[in-house]
Design a protein that fits this description.
Number of strands: 11
Distance between the termini: 85 Å
Strand content: 15-25%
Shape: elongated
Structural class: alpha+beta
Strand order of the largest sheet: 6-5-4-3-7
Oligomer: single chain
Radius of gyration: 28 Å
């Protein structure tokens, strides 16, 4: 029998009023029989739990009774940040703590505020992951969360895009970031594979948690720099990433329909560039614009999503890549030029 679970039963009755044994069991993930036993133990401990039989009945606390036993554990206090992000809390291994902390908060509120909080919770929902992809598997996320909170070094094997693809790192995690459903760990890095890409105490680097192949929490502790701010670091990282990402430009023509379809098919930076540089080039509504590009191959794949609603004017290498790809598609489908 868990004393914590008995407290949860008490707080449920205090925050929600009348509840059936089945509703209590479903809320706490136990059997109905266990819920009955927990209520009996509360009654035996002197808590005034009243039973109301019949349809619509259940258990409730005697009118006017309130407990002040709402102190939070360390884990629940940590979990409060994710109270509105249940999926993120589950990823971090904090689902139970978030549920318990939320219940204690509700129980501590006066009746009017508690009812308003409950109503608010029913009309807002956060769904962080992006469309058209499965959630990433992050088996080491909770380990990194623990390492970040306790400031312990992590021994990790990581898969990156450049050679050598598999590297070993000693990471000092400064923080975790959830970006469009993808988890990243920001950590100072010590290279232990001789690739010459970092030393202890160097500028933090960003690692995609799903790319961690293996990780072990060590007993070594570290101190996070006092002047490090995770939000400021992430903003700087995004700005630097955008600057490194786009290395060229392309001049394109877009139909009115193509321009409407842009936000669903290209990066926001490309959409903003079209809005900033578009000039009308005919009575049919087509516009000409200059957009940033990563590479000819990447731009070709991105712009081909727009089909006949886009034409590349420059550079020649990108225009040729578009033509070659369209020609290859035509041949694959048995289409030949007609005189």
């Amino acid at each position: 029998m868990s004393a914590g679970r008995l407290l949860s039963v008490l707080l449920l009755l205090q925050s929600r009023g009348r509840m059936s044994a089945r509703a209590i069991a479903e809320e706490l993930g136990v059997s109905v029989r266990t819920a009955y036993r927990d209520v009996e133990r509360l009654q035996g401990a002197g808590v005034p739990v009243c039973a109301e039989p019949g349809r619509g009945g259940g258990y409730r606390l005697l009118d006017g009774y309130r407990t002040r036993l709402t102190g939070m554990t360390q884990g629940e206090a940590r979990a409060l940040l994710f109270a509105g992000l249940p999926d993120a809390a589950a990823d971090l291994g904090l689902a139970a703590e978030v549920s318990a902390a939320r219940l204690k908060l509700l129980a501590a509120l006066p009746a009017g505020a508690r009812e308003e909080a409950a109503r608010t919770a029913t009309v807002f929902h956060v769904d962080a992951p992006g469309w058209y992809r499965e959630p990433e598997q992050t088996p080491y996320l909770s380990l990194f969360a623990d390492a970040t909170l306790t400031r312990r070094v992590v021994e990790a094997r990581y898969r990156r895009w450049r050679a050598p693809q598999e590297v070993s790192r000693r990471l000092r995690p400064y923080g975790l970031v959830l970006k469009s459903g993808v988890w990243y760990v920001v950590a100072a890095t010590e290279d232990v594979t001789g690739t010459g890409t970092g030393t202890a105490g160097a500028t933090p680097a960003t690692y995609r948690v799903a790319q961690v192949l293996d990780a072990t929490l060590s007993g070594e502790r570290f101190d996070r720099p006092r002047d490090f701010e995770l939000g400021a670091y992430w903003a700087s990282y995004l700005a630097d990433f955008a600057a490194r990402r786009y290395t060229g430009t392309a001049t394109i023509r877009l139909s009115p329909r193509g321009r409407r379809r842009l936000p669903d098919n290209v990066a926001p930076e490309v959409v903003r560039a079209v809005d900033a540089t578009a000039t009308t080039v005919g009575a049919d509504g087509w516009v000409e614009a200059v957009v940033p590009t990563e590479s000819a191959a990447h731009a070709c794949g991105e712009l081909l999503r727009l089909g006949t609603d886009v034409e590349v004017l420059a550079p020649a290498v990108l225009r040729r890549a578009m033509a070659d790809t369209v020609g290859a598609l035509a041949r694959a489908y048995g289409v030949t030029d007609r005189a």
